[in-house]
Amino acid sequence: MNKDPRRQQIIRVHTVSLGCPKNRIDTEKMLGRLGPEYSPADSADEAEVILVNTCGFIQPAVEESLQTILELAMEIKDLDPKPLLAVTGCLPARYGSELTLKLQEVDLWVSFQEQGQWDRLIKKSLAERDLKPGIIENAQEGDCFEPSRVISTGPGYAYLKINEGCNHDCSFCLIPSIKGPLVSDPIDDLVSEAEGLLARGVQEICIVAQDVTAYGKDLGLKNGLQPLLERLASLPGLHWLRLMYLYPSGITKDLLAFLKQVGPPLLPYFDIPLQHAHPDILSKMGRPFQANPARTIDLIRDYFPEACLRTTFITGFPGESEDHFQALYDFVRDQSLNHVGVFSFSPEEGTRAAGLEEAVDDVRKEERRNRLLELQADISGRILSEAQGEEMEILIDQPDPEWPTLFQGRAWFQAPEVDGITYVSSLEARPGQMIRCRVQETKTYDLTALDESGP
Predict the structure, then answer these.
(1) What pLDDT is stored for residue 99 in this prediction?
(2) In this structure, how many other beta carbons lie within 10 angstroms of the beta carbon of residue 272?
(3) Alpha-carbon distance 396 to 432, whole Å?
């Protein structure tokens, strides 16, 4: 019996995807380009190719990316044959040839522009190293499949990236220089991608972008997000539709009225990175000037009294005085937001903010960050306590690694990876399932619940 030549050319890939969900989507699409030749490898020593998708947004992310590359290179240096080490993402986009000259351990650098052809690049490299003889010829003969994503988030949810790049000019941010200007994907392509996700049983789609509210501006669309959401919200099988990263200036009465009209499956979940609450600091940050950022929160609550609100703040931005920070602290205390992330300012080379005077020392940055986090912990615990005894739908993400009848899932107000989780006691739950539960206990960030969906 003749063997299928393509089955002889399986490529075992060990993947490390760092940074944001947008990177994860890029990784999933890159793996999908291998089609039936792709096989996951749980560890580096089991792989023929190691793919590292890096983050380079701020210095801690740069350091994590470099450490990951070097640790993997050390892990495989004595293997024979040695896996091919491929690196892509924001790190090489930020540092370019300066990085590639220093990291000789990397076998293949893949730019953003090359991600769509990375399968051919690695096949060529494997063939040149005689690790996969004939793989290029086989690929040319058999490349008739439609590339799709290799979903890495489990069966319950997936991310949908609707645009890339950014046209804003925040003084602390490198994204426009790394990713370039705003580029939106066509609506038909995004709907088709979403249909593919739902066909695989995904219950929740999380829309992500550098600025979701900017969708379609580069395509000449007025209020481009609206026709996209209308199409997505009508797709059969979609249970939850979540919007992540809504730029504050994009939150308008027209948008909110439209979102109210859409209704389920669109969740009243608003992820709005305010970054600060004092107009002086917002002005220095290059954010759309707002004399009172509370107006954005009030506007959302006018339309969605039940809204779940998430935001992020930066402490220790140059020129942040005690009065400025106190205004931020008071804002967090008074607004009672559901989820708050806090970051210490990182002066990134190449940004305007890195050259600003009146730098805040690192100790003070961290002290202010910790104060905000302690405040938010109290707020979060109080808000979650109101769910005690409630019955609600929980999307099961995965079984708990330690207890066979315990599962980890999320309520509608818990976004994947960034918010708390709900621990569910169940005899029959399975990942990807939406079940009815009753909340048994509330904690600072998490809930525990009992499955009540049985017969």
Answers:
(1) 87
(2) 23
(3) 5
Residue 222: burial class (beta carbons within 10 Å; 0-12, 13-18, 19+): exposed
- Which of the 8 DSSP states describes residue 318? T
Burial of 312 (0-12, 13-18, 19+ CB in 10 A): middle
Residues 417 and 279 in one domain: no
Low-confidence ranges of the chain (pLDDT < 50): 1-7, 137, 139-142
Strands annotated E in 33-150: 38-40, 49-54, 84-89, 108-110
The whole-number pLDDT of residue 112 equals: 92
- Number of domains composing the chain: 3
Query: What is the structure's pLDDT at 127?
Result: 84
Whole-structure pTM value: 0.91
Q: What separation, in Å, do the N-terminal and C-terminal C-alpha atoms of the chain show?
A: 51
Task: Give 331's contacts (C-beta < 8 A, 6+ positions apart).
Answer: 277, 293, 294
Q: Are residues 339 and 268 in the same domain?
A: yes
- Dihedral angle of Cα 117, 122, 124, 127, to the nearest 10 degrees: -160
Residue 191 lies in a domain: yes
Task: Examine residue 147 and state whether it is found in any structural domain, yes or no.
Answer: no
**Cβ contact 98:134 at 8 Å:** no
What is the domain-level CATH number for residue 444?
2.40.50.140
Structural domain for 116, as ranges: 5-142
| 148 domain residue, yes or no | no
In a domain, 150, yes or no: no
Torsion of CA 106, 108, 114, 116, to 10 degrees: -110
Residue 77: CB atoms within 10 Å: 10
- Chosen domain end from 385, 411, 434: 385
What does the pLDDT read at residue 437? 95
Contact 163, 215 (CB under 8 A): yes
Longest dimension (CA), the chain: 79
Per-residue tokens: 202? 């995904």
d(CA 415, CA 435): 17
Q: Given this model, what pLDDT does residue 14 score?
A: 96
- For 358-391, b/e burial (b = at least 16 CB within 10 A) is ebbeeebbeebbebbeebbeebbeebbeebeeee
